[in-house]
């Protein structure tokens, strides 16, 4: 590396550091509303520690200071990314479908971390080009940095979509058993709320968690029909939506609930059988690829190679 390239790299790093220092200085920082009203709220009594969220301890005590320094920057970048991408309502719905264990801010921070991780690959190649003069051209490295950052954001979205699909598959597997347990409880004389409470205590999967959330909404003041409709709003499964609608109609009109639950469980089992048959058909077609392109050519080679060698010997 020449002295000019080394000086340019050091100047770039120094300029970047100065820009960050000036941008994050108190004079350049925008004053938030919380900073304005904080002096007037200092005399208020501190809330109970039982109601405060416990901060998650770092996996390594030595990284606590680094985490404290990086967290404000990540939050700032995540907020800007959220304003750039938009769609908070759709994202909130997807996070709810994935289980609701991650907030929008945490998801955006994870996207920023994935984008930085993807951009580091291109940055590493760009540094090799600047320091050692090897690697792809600078323009290609810059394109790799941008592509890696975009790939990190899109990859986190794909991970969320996959998590939603896996959770919905687990709920479909649990649904027939849960419906039959509800039917047995109702047939034994339990009310609708009593059957839901009993089954929610016995089940520990994703559908049982949704039933516990519905019961919590009912205890908070919502009607049972509204609490059941909340299950359909938090998921995108057509069988579960039909199940909730059937229970709501049966509760409102007083029709026999056990028959509806058994019919819903039977429909879901039939739908599961159809999905297994369709998956088997797709796997059968996928199995033809290695058979046609790997096994069959190998068999042909083993069959014709001895004859080809014999013909070669005879010709000589």
Largest sheet: none
* Terminal Cα span: 61 Å
Average pLDDT, all residues = 79
Fraction in helix: over 70%
Please give the radius of gyration in angstroms: 30 Å
**Morphology call:** flat
Query: Uncertain runs with pLDDT below 50, 5 residues or more?
Result: none
Briefly note the structural class of the backbone: mainly alpha
The CATH topology of the domain at 169-272 comes to Receptor-associated Protein
Total of DSSP H or I helical runs spanning 4+ residues: 11
> Any idea what the CATH architecture of the domain at 169-272 is?
Up-down Bundle
Order of helices and strands: HHHHHHHHHHH
At the first level of CATH, the class of the domain at 169-272 is: Mainly Alpha
Number of β-strand runs = 0
Strand content: under 5%
Description:
InterPro entries: T2SS_GspF_dom (IPR018076). The chain crosses the membrane at residues 6-23, 112-132, 138-160, 291-315. Its main location: membrane. One of its GO terms (cellular component) is plasma membrane. 16% of the residues are buried. This protein has a domain at 169-272: Up-down Bundle (Receptor-associated Protein). The protein has 316 residues and is mainly alpha-helical. It contains eleven helices and no strands. Helix 10 packs antiparallel against helix 11.
Give keywords:
single chain; 316 residues; mainly alpha; Receptor-associated Protein; 11 helices
């Amino acid at each position: 590396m020449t002295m000019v390239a080394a000086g340019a790299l050091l100047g770039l790093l120094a300029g970047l550091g100065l820009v960050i220092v000036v941008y994050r200085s108190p004079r350049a920082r925008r004053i938030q509303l919380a900073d304005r009203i904080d002096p007037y709220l200092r005399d208020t009594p501190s809330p109970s520690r039982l109601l405060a969220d416990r901060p998650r301890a770092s996996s390594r005590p030595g990284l606590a200071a680094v985490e404290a320094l990086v967290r404000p920057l990540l939050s700032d970048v995540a907020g800007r990314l959220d304003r750039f991408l938009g769609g908070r309502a759709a994202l909130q719905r997807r996070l709810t479908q994935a289980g609701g264990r991650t907030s929008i801010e945490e998801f955006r921070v994870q996207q920023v971390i994935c984008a930085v991780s993807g951009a580091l690959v291109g940055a590493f190649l760009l540094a090799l080009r600047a320091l050692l003069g090897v690697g792809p051209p600078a323009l290609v490295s810059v394109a790799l940095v941008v592509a890696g950052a975009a790939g990190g954001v899109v990859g986190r979205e794909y991970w969320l979509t996959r998590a939603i699909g896996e959770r919905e598959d687990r709920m479909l597997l649990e649904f027939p058993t849960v419906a039959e347990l509800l039917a047995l409880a109702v047939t034994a004389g339990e009310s609708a709320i009593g059957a839901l409470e009993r089954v929610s205590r016995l089940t520990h999967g994703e559908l049982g968690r949704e039933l516990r959330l519905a019961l919590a909404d009912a205890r908070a003041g919502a009607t049972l029909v509204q609490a059941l409709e909340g299950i359909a709003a938090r998921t995108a499964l057509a069988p579960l939506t039909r199940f909730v609608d059937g229970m709501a109609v049966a509760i409102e009109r007083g029709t026999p609930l056990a028959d509806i639950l058994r019919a819903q469980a039977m429909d879901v089992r039939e739908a599961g059988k159809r999905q297994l048959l369709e998956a088997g058909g797709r796997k059968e077609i996928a199995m033809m690829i290695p058979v046609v392109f790997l096994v069959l050519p190998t068999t042909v080679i083993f069959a014709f190679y001895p004859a080809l060698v014999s013909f070669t010997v005879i010709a000589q």
